[in-house]
Amino acid sequence: MTPSAPAPALEIASSLGPNDLPYALPVHPNLVHFTIGLFAIAIAFDVAGALYPAEKRVFRWLALPVTRRGFHDVGWYNLLACAVVTFFTVGAGFFEMLLADPIPGMRSTLGLGATTTMLWHGVGGVLLLLIIVAMTVWRGFQRFAWRRDYGRQVTWAYLALGVALLLVLGLHGTLGAELAAEFGVHITADQMLAAGVDPRTALP
Is residue 16 part of a domain? Predict the structure, then answer.
């Protein structure tokens, strides 16, 4: 009987740092905030564009040279950038999840274990990616075809879905935050303390 090969993650174990990653800082959390920021700006500017008739007197009083199309341009390009960035966000998340070594015996504030939390976070991330891509396609059709000749470039249904998705992104992000806060995933100090090592003496 031939011995089984080590798991792929174990093959690079010797090159991992105390945060269980081959690089100093996790990439996924930074890209997550980039995704959320781009999406929030996209929806906020499209809302501003949709409400422009009620706002334009204020802009004139403030001497701000803004246009309705300008708001919608910012909304469109931020959403397009969000759709692209989110592919890297999800990809980095799965890579770092494969290398995760959560502190054993812990439970999240929702009562979930580390594996269950990572599973929900991973599946939810893929679903959110698909929704963002679908919204980008929907937004593109509104911009270039369906509402090309309208002042308001987006429908109220699109804006309502965008606001709802912002709330879902926030709730989904709490799962990722719990992976770090409760399970010490890729948190150097937490991992060292769980292993009985003093970070003050072990780290340079």
Answer: no
